[in-house]
Write a structure and sequence with these properties.
Helix content is about 45%, strand content about 15%. The longest helix has 18 residues.
């Protein structure tokens, strides 16, 4: 049986790098517990090198003794790692810039220095923690041969997982699949894709990486993260199960409640049409669609909304027909003649024009009761 893909959540690290987002201790604990209760595989919980307040929150998370691996994010700098060790986390992610752009113009160093520094940090971490993730920052803009060289060196050093980061969000699925296949065939170490969503392809790229042989993907709740965010946990988890037919440990029915917690903690409203967790994603307005799902849900259903703790609903818009009105009334134990139905529909359409949006079922019933 194929190995299950690991969902490595970084809401508490990369998610908190989203502009204007800062989680206090109660929010961090609530998010961590919700994700763990749902069955997440790993939590990246922050950056201890940021200082006392951040390190304290991470230490508090460690003290909860949650049944999941907690890791921290670190630059390829020993002082960062020392700050992580003091929190008591089980694992560390050591991030190394891999593109010439960043090696030369961010670090002002060369490849030789980077490999040497990587070796020092990994060997040091091996003495202090039980799990090491080597993060390859800006790997999507790096020389592929240099990435391969890093992978081979990481194998010698005993790294547990390698994270290929599309830091700028510039990859597309076909490129991911054909390029990353080479790395998956080369590496004896499990590979993870950390996808950013600058061009709206983070989820698709994550699935392509899995198809290419990657064993883990980075995710955040709602896609929260730096700039346009990361691959969304809920999208990746559902797509793994229903598109790739992969086993998913996560309890998908908890996705909506987790998203609500993160939305409140980050003060970011969930868009109505946001896949999986948006309020409208299982709502049907067109008469054709409503008729279709009444006959067989599979006519307009990719997967059952009940599998993610949701249900189908209908709304009344300009495409609504009389039979949709009749259906709703009968479901509520009401019966009207055809003339009354047409009158009610006319009033609803007038109200829709005034509000410039569809009406929810309860709003339509309000019109019925006031007529």
């Amino acid at each position: 049986m194929a190995q299950r893909v690991l969902l490595c959540d970084t809401t508490l690290r990369d998610g908190e790098q989203a502009p204007g987002v800062s989680f206090g201790w109660p929010e961090k604990e609530m998010i961590a517990r919700a994700l763990v209760d749902a069955g997440i595989d790993e939590l990246e919980v922050g950056v201890p090198a940021m200082g006392g307040a951040e390190a304290k929150k991470i230490s508090q998370l460690v003290a909860l003794k949650l049944p999941v691996r907690l890791i921290t994010w670190n630059r390829v700098v020993l002082s960062d790692l020392l700050a992580s060790y003091r929190t008591g986390v089980e694992g560390v992610a050591i991030c190394i810039p891999t593109s010439e752009q960043q090696i030369k113009h961010k670090l002002n160093k060369d490849r030789g220095w980077l490999l040497d520094q990587m070796g020092q940090c990994v060997r040091n971490a091996k003495q202090e923690v039980g799990y090491i993730v080597l993060g390859l920052e800006d790997a999507s803009r790096a020389d592929l041969n240099f990435v391969k060289e890093i992978i081979l060196e990481a194998q010698k050093l005993g790294v547990d997982r390698i994270r290929f980061s599309d830091t700028m969000g510039i990859l597309e699925p076909l490129q991911v699949f054909f390029t990353l296949q080479e790395l998956a065939k080369l590496s004896r170490i499990p590979l993870e894709l950390h996808a950013h969503n600058d061009l709206g392809m983070a989820t698709a790229n994550s699935l392509a990486a899995v198809q290419a042989g990657f064993k883990a993907v980075s995710v955040t709740v709602g896609g929260l993260g730096e700039r346009t965010g990361n691959a969304a946990l809920e999208e990746v988890a559902v797509a793994l199960k229903y598109c790739l037919k992969q086993e998913v440990r996560l309890d998908l029915k908890r996705l909506n409640s987790i998203a609500s917690i993160v939305s409140a903690a980050s003060d970011r409203r969930i868009p109505r049409a946001k896949p999986i967790i948006g309020s409208d994603v299982f709502t049907h307005t067109s008469a054709i669609h409503i008729d279709g799902i009444q006959k067989d849900y599979a006519n307009y259903q990719t997967f059952p909304p009940e599998s993610v703790g949701r249900k189908h609903s209908t709304a009344f818009g300009k495409h609504t027909k009389s039979k949709n009105v009749v259906r709703l009334l009968k479901s509520r134990g009401m019966d009207c003649d055809q003339d009354t139905v047409k009158e009610l529909l006319g009033k609803a359409l007038d109200r829709i024009q005034q509000l410039n949006r569809p009406l929810e079922e309860e709003e339509f019933l309000g019109i019925v009761l006031s007529s």
